Amino acid sequence: MQYRMYVDEVGNADLGSSDDPNHRFLSLTGVIVHLQSEARVIHADMEAIKSEFFGGHPDEPVVFHRKDILNARQAFRPLIDPDVRSRFDAQILEKLRSWTYTVISVCIDKKAHKERYAVWRYEPYHYCMAVLLERYVFFLNRTRAKGDVMAESRGRESDLRLKDSFQGLWRRGTDHVDQGQFQGVLSSRELKVKSKAMNIAGLQLADLLAHPSRNEILSENGLLDKPIAPFAQNVIAVLRAKYDQRGGRIYGKKML
């Protein structure tokens, strides 16, 4: 069996901005999808929804992006109509429930991290990626499967940071998972990085889930200073059944 974990980030790794409430937190959300079956189902369902609500052309595909959907921008302008918005939201929520995937989210409080490690500290991206990959390795071991990882391109500097972090973990492992375990289940030593414009369903799914997942983790830890929007609350309700878990214990959420 072959899986792929699609990764989306919310926030940035700059420790210098950690005192700014708008930039205090960084999260990485991984969505694990079975490539030989479910990836095709998710792609087909997404394209059907796009065709119904937004039209579009194969040469210029509509690509789901949470911020544009939320603000009814660009291709998503039909969502200004409350009736269209209601029907679209209902279809998205139904698919988020029915699709088969597993979620792992890791969030770091950069401000607390900087204050705790005044002399030496992990780089936030590397710390989050390490915890995310550890849990992905546990998932692959448990399912007796192999898998790789793909992230959305966010610019050269961010892409290089993620790739370097991934390769370092593949070569050296972590304090909790040695390199043999990483190399035994990860089918590639390279992190795949693709543009959002390539219309990859798994990356779009991760984009839809990353922000609600982050806000749920922050809310649970008393770190969210505003109420969660109603639609995001509905997504969070779906996520609770999608987080990696076994024996009633959730391994798919981690606050650092």
The Rg value, from CA coordinates, equals 18 Å
What is the CATH domain class?
Answer: Alpha Beta
Q: Residue ranges: pLDDT <50 for 5 or more in a row? A: none
Number of helices: 9
Structural class: alpha/beta
CATH topology: Nucleotidyltransferase, domain 5
Terminal Cα separation, in Å? 31 Å
Q: How much of the polypeptide forms β-strand, as a percent range?
A: 15-25%
Order of helices and strands: EEHHHEHHEHHEHHEEE
Q: What is the β-strand count?
A: 8
Outline: globular
Which bin fits the share of residues in helices?
40-55%
State the CATH architecture.
2-Layer Sandwich
Question: How many domain modules?
Answer: 1
User: Reading side by side through the largest sheet, how are the strands ordered?
Assistant: 5-4-1-2-3-8
Mean residue pLDDT? 91
Task: Describe it.
This protein has one domain: Nucleotidyltransferase, domain 5. The protein is 47% helix and 17% strand. The protein is built from nine helices and eight strands. A six-stranded mixed sheet has the order 5-4-1-2-3-8, sandwiched between helices. Strands 6-7 form a two-stranded antiparallel sheet. A hairpin with a 2-residue loop joins strand 6 and strand 7. Helix 1 runs antiparallel to helix 3 and helix 5 packs across helix 6. The chain is globular. The two termini are 31 Å apart. The relative contact order is 0.19. The model has no long low-confidence stretch (mean pLDDT 91).
Task: Write a brief structural summary.
It contains nine helices and eight strands.
Quickly list its features:
single chain; 256 residues; alpha/beta; Nucleotidyltransferase, domain 5; 6-stranded mixed beta sheet; two-stranded antiparallel ribbon; 8 strands; globular
